[in-house]
Specification:
CATH class: Mainly Beta
Distance between the termini: 55 Å
Oligomer: single chain
Mean pLDDT: 77
Strand order of the largest sheet: 4-3-6-7
Structural class: alpha+beta
Number of helices: 3
Number of domains: 1
CATH topology: Immunoglobulin-like
Strand content: 25-35%
Radius of gyration: 24 Å
CATH architecture: Sandwich
Shape: flat
């Protein structure tokens, strides 16, 4: 009788624990409890050059929402050509969000989007703008609104004679890489990776 009771208790405990999602454990689940990429608007992240073949394109991810009736406008720079287009609803599913093309190279583009966001029975018409820097050459862009250029410039104020023949490697010029924020990071991390991540 006691053995049968213990076996039943064990089976019940295993069933309960196996139904609890891993995100409730201390490590925060396989992908962590924290979303690390920047969301500029009311839907998902901005992915620059999403297929690694067209640096002047982007996708604004849908963030898990159903989108409809999307209109995109690339605000022209001075003496530039306006690009504006509607996105067919089937392409919103193909790209997993809003496809953006026709960005200006080496420029912080302003992209205006209008769309209908559907969540359950709630429908909301949204108009917002995104800032996207498109690099002049194939260089990974993070898709954040703070990004202003692909490469950095150095303004040397004073050259000391003892340092005139030295070459320095500047590493970690960006806080986070666009692809790195979509990587699975289990918390807590240790070793060198902790120095790479700047938690706020």
């Amino acid at each position: 009788m006691k053995f049968k009771y213990a076996l039943t208790s064990l089976a019940l405990s295993v069933a309960i624990l196996s139904s609890v999602p891993s995100t409730s454990f201390a490590i925060g689940g396989a992908s962590g409890a924290k979303v690390d990429y920047q969301v500029q608007g009311k839907i998902g992240e901005v992915v620059m050059n999403p297929y690694d073949i067209a640096p002047l394109t982007a996708v604004i991810r849908n963030g898990g929402y159903q989108l409809r009736d999307v209109h995109v406008r690339i605000v022209p720079k001075e003496n530039g050509q306006e690009i504006a287009y509607k996105v067919n609803n089937k392409y919103l599913l193909t790209y997993g969000g809003i496809p953006v093309f026709g960005l200006y190279p080496d420029y912080v583009n302003t992209v205006e989007v209008e769309y209908t966001r559907i969540q359950g029975s709630k429908t909301e018409n949204i108009k917002e703008s995104y800032k996207m820097y498109a690099p002049p050459a194939y260089i990974e862009s993070a898709g954040t609104k703070e990004e202003q250029s692909a490469l950095f410039t150095i303004d040397v104020k004073k050259v000391s004679p003892e340092f005139k023949d030295r070459l320095y490697l500047l590493n970690n010029t960006k806080d986070k890489s666009g692809n790195g924020t979509r990587t699975v990071w289990n918390n807590p991390t240790g070793g060198g990776i902790r120095m790479e991540l700047h938690y706020s």
